[in-house]
Amino acid sequence: MSTTSLVILAIFTALAAVGALGFMRWQEQKRLERARMAVIHSDQMGELSMIGESLQPWISAPMLHFIAQDIQQHGEELNLLQAPTNKRCNKALENALAWLNATPKPPAKLPNQVKQAQEIRHLIQRLQDLIRSGHQHHRIDTSQARQLLQEARLLNVKIAVAVFDSKATAAASVNNPPQAIHYLKKAEAALKQLSNPPDDLKAILASIQQRITQQQEQRQPAAGGTRLEEGADLLNAEDDSWKKKHF
């Protein structure tokens, strides 16, 4: 074999080797990308399932159906990736099927303790992120996304109002009008931030405003003020900065 032929063969062999190496790297990148996407879809299914289980007592059937359908869509993506499902994914799919066939129930009583309310508020915020993601990826249309986001926002406000109302009631029960007024006004402010609240929240707002008036009338005889009231007002002001981080 001539020198020229050997050189050509060597060049061809080198090119083939480079091409084979590049192809192997491309395959590996594709495999890693499929594995990454499988993890993302699995995690989303588990998170949606957890959110649905936690918020089910207070969310509407359309919201629960969105969660269920989003779980199923992530499950379909896993099937397309030919990725295996784990126990968490299977549980999420079971929940999704049950939620799609569930009979609607009246909402449960809202939590009025700070710790539980904070946990639920965090879940609501995460649910809002998932709704926006679903809209961005064309899994739900604009109208549905807008309705679901509004429901989530209203639920967040209702929970905040329930906490403030509970604190105001506790203050009133120990004859502390300044503290009761403080929390009632926080509940009033939370409701007033809604541009077009539904009728049930309008009724709650009217009731809270009436209670504010009643507490102010009880406080009126001590209009001159005492050191105790002044101290309570100061504590209320300091308390505001902390609670703004949570509600």
TrEMBL record:
The chain crosses the membrane at residues 6-26. Residues 212-247 are annotated as: Disordered. It comes from the Bacteria. Keywords: Membrane, Transmembrane, Transmembrane helix. This is DNA repair protein. It comes from Thalassolituus pacificus. The lineage of its organism: Bacteria, Pseudomonadati, Pseudomonadota, Gammaproteobacteria, Oceanospirillales.
